[in-house]
User: Which sequence fits this backbone?
């Protein structure tokens, strides 16, 4: 059934946990109808329980080309066109450049770059028709700087920031804005995996490994998912913000 409430319709990828879950909660609290997608139906169900308003759970793998159409069709049949797209699905891997496999390289491109591209491409036509839309991609400070041992991840994030900037310029006169939010290390399950990797490779304790990541932010702690969600909402709520990569990293990258 098309949306008859007048509320904006949002679609959040990677909504099962971490940053995506925090963004879904934020958008729901602000009165949006929120469609949630990720691979885990159980995690999406938990996100839905934590949202204040009406949600739609649509499990999907963002790397599957056919899943994109299926997700948008489900949302459109329930509420109508998507007004707000937040591309929050992401993955990381760690290896020296010369030890990075083709599989690791391709996975980073598929999840962090090609997935967001396909969702943007599918969302834009309806936004153009209504001359209004908001698109936010959750990138990373790795979209702006290079760090050792994450070359595939960094390349994918640099690429997605380029996608955001090009799309924003192309759509600037249409009422559709496209921005990226670029977090540092966030207190999420993905960072827990990074901590585990540091432990395995260095023999440090969990606390020591976590401290290494905390010190990468000048504020001396990990970023919270809610801080990333607040920055995302800023991009959605302000039509004058376009083509930006908003850093949420405690001041590590000043731009």
Assistant:
């Amino acid at each position: 059934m098309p949306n008859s409430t007048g509320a904006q319709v949002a679609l959040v990828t990677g909504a099962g946990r971490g940053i995506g879950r925090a963004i879904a909660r934020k958008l729901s609290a602000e009165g949006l109808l929120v469609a949630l997608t990720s691979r885990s139906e159980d995690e999406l169900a938990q996100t839905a329980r934590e949202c204040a308003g009406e949600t739609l759970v649509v499990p999907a793998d963002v790397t599957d080309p056919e899943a994109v159409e299926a997700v948008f069709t489900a949302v459109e049949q329930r509420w109508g066109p998507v007004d707000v797209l937040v591309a929050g699905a992401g993955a990381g891997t760690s290896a020296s450049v010369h030890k990075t496999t083709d599989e690791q390289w391709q996975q980073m491109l598929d999840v962090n770059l090609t997935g967001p591209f396909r969702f943007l491409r599918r969302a834009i036509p309806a936004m153009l028709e209504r001359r209004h839309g908001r698109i936010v991609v959750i990138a990373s400070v790795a979209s702006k700087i290079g760090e050792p041992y994450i070359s595939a991840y960094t390349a994918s994030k640099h690429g997605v920031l380029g996608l955001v900037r090009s799309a924003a310029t192309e759509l600037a006169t249409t009422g559709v804005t496209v921005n990226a939010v670029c977090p540092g290390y966030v207190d999420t399950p993905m960072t827990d995996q990074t901590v585990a990797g540091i432990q395995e490779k260095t023999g440090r304790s969990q606390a020591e490994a976590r401290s290494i990541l905390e010190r990468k932010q000048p504020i001396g702690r990990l970023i919270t998912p809610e801080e990333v969600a607040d920055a995302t909402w800023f991009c959605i709520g302000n039509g004058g913000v376009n083509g930006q990569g908003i850093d949420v990293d405690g001041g590590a990258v000043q731009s």
